[in-house]
Amino acid sequence: MKKLKVSLKNCYGINKLDYEFDFSEKSTFAIYSPNGIMKTSFAKTFKDVSTGDTTSDKIFNERTTVRKITNENDVDIDGKNILVIEPYNETYKSEKLSTLLVNAKLKNDYEKIHIEINTKKMNCLKSSNRYLVSEPT
Questions:
Q1: How far apart are CA 12 and CA 54, in angstroms?
Q2: Which of 67, 20, 26, 22 is nearest to 47 (CA)?
Q3: What tens digit of pLDDT does each residue of 66-100 get?
Q4: Against a cut of 0.70, is the pTM above it?
Q5: Distance between terminal CA atoms of the chain?
Q6: Of residues 101, 57, 52, the one with CA closest to residue 78
Q7: How far apart are CA 41 and CA 13, in angstroms?
């Protein structure tokens, strides 16, 4: 896939968004905006596609929702080809995700080990400095 065409209307607060992501020269895009602008709504819409759920506008549910996400040939993107990683959810599970995320216990163990290593390293350096720097007599 070289292009991803997104046409959204009334999707979780996104009034209207028409954009074509061109992957022919780069493989990633970063979507940045201030809080409350549209990032979560965008992710929720893609999550709906990945799970086969219906997208809507939760506040103005009488509005007609349009959700069209296609490739460069105007063929709908298969939800199996979409992975949405939920932010700040340490219990997140997905069949599509293997080594990208670490469970909370392993993360805590890893951090404890590195704190121990750094403490021992600092103690070793302090100890060796006594022998390298001559003390005044």
A1: 11
A2: 67
A3: 999 999 999 999 999 898 877 666 666 665 544 44
A4: no
A5: 74
A6: 52
A7: 7
